[in-house]
């Protein structure tokens, strides 16, 4: 059996990617993990494509210099705008968080007859990119047997009525990230903001709601209460962790042995704040956090 003992690199614009980190750690306990949170430059969600690509490329370079075996872009905004570019320049495989979440959304809605509504919430930049709508349609096409190499106009193809009945609602919720970054997790104001943003989505009775931002799983309990039991909540972090595990198994890239994996964290600003809030998100103390400056 083949193994690969190099670490996995995970990065986000800030703290939110820890939700993906947590899921990876849960199902890959022996892997060494390196996390980078760009805390000096968060948020990415209101920045231009060029800036997001520049920041993401710098972080990818930093992580590949550390000898990672794969990189996980644990940020929906960066996955929306920079993933194609990062894949082109990267010496190691790069995973985003959009494809696994989109795949799950298609699977959930496949079993529904009639009108299928998939709702996606994310940052303004993610919604503006249309990456979820595009990827959901691509995943549906693959499920209906269209090969990746075929040049099919996915939007104009019906796939046994799937497309005709499919409606994708993408909604930006720009206040969620600052609320999470400020640690406003149990405050009334957070509940009210969730109510405000989700009102128009709830009216549509979606089959599922994709949490298209890595900060949002931190608000999952509130979101779940608001949206009700009939809508399945899809956490891209959970789906990404699953697909990374499958990939490492398939390509003989798991770490050998059964010793708990090492963890190291890098941030671009204020390691104390990251330790404090990040520790809350992970539900355990974070120790070895180092500050890196790109300028
Ligand atoms: N982590 C980002 C995402 O998943 C949200 C925070 C930001 O705007 O940078 O989209």
Describe this structure in words.
The chain has 295 residues and is an alpha/beta fold. It has 2 domains: 3-96 and 239-291, Rossmann fold (3-Layer(aba) Sandwich); 98-237, 3-Layer(aba) Sandwich (Rossmann fold). 45% of the residues lie in helices and 16% in strands. The chain contains 12 helices and 10 strands. It has helices at 18-27, 49-65, 76-89, 98-110, 124-129, 131-143, 162-165, 176-181, 188-203, 220-227, 236-250, 271-282; strands at residues 8-12, 33-37, 70-73, 94-95, 116-122, 166-172, 208-212, 232-235, 263-267, 289-291. α3 (76-89) links the parallel β3 and β4 (94-95). α1 packs across α11 (236-250). The protein is globular and about 50 Å long. The mean pLDDT is 91. Bound molecules: D-glutamic acid (DGL). Residues 12-14, 16, 42-45, 75-77, 122-123, 126, 177, 213-215 line the site of D-glutamic acid.
Number of domains: 2
Helix and strand element order: EHEHEHEHEHHHEHHEHEHEHE
Mean pLDDT: 91
Question: What would the CATH topology of the largest domain be?
Answer: Rossmann fold
* Secondary-structure-derived class: alpha/beta
Label the overall shape.
Answer: globular
What's the total number of strands? 10
CATH architecture of the largest domain: 3-Layer(aba) Sandwich
């Amino acid at each position: 059996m083949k193994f690969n003992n190099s670490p996995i690199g995970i990065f986000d614009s800030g703290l939110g990617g820890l939700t993906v980190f947590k899921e990876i750690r849960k199902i890959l306990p022996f892997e060494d993990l390196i996390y980078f949170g760009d805390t000096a430059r968060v948020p990415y969600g209101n920045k231009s494509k060029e800036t997001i690509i520049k920041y993401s490329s710098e972080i990818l370079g930093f992580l590949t210099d550390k000898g990672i075996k794969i990189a996980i872009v644990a940020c929906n905004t960066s996955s929306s705008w920079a993933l194609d570019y990062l894949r082109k320049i990267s010496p190691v495989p790069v995973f985003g968080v959009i494809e696994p979440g989109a795949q799950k959304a298609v699977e959930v809605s496949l079993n529904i007859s009639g009108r299928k509504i998939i709702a996606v919430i994310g940052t303004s930049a993610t919604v503006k990119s249309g990456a979820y709508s595009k990827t959901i349609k691509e995943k549906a096409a693959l499920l209906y047997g269209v090969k990746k190499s075929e040049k099919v106009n996915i939007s104009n193809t019906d796939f046994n009525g799937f497309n005709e009945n499919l409606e994708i609602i993408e909604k930006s919720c720009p206040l969620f990230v600052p609320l999470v970054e400020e640690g406003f997790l149990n405050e009334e104001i957070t509940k009210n903001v969730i109510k405000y943003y989700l009102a128009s989505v709830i009216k549509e009775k979606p089959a599922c709601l994709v949490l298209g931002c890595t900060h949002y799983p931190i608000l999952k309990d509130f979101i779940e209460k608001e949206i009700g039991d009939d809508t399945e909540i899809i956490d891209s972090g959970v789906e990404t962790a699953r697909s990374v595990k499958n990939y490492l198994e398939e390509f003989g890239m798991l770490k050998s042995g059964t010793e708990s994996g090492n963890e190291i964290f890098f941030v671009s600003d204020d390691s104390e704040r990251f330790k404090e809030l990040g520790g809350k998100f992970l539900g355990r103390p974070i120790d070895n956090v180092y500050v890196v400056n790109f300028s």
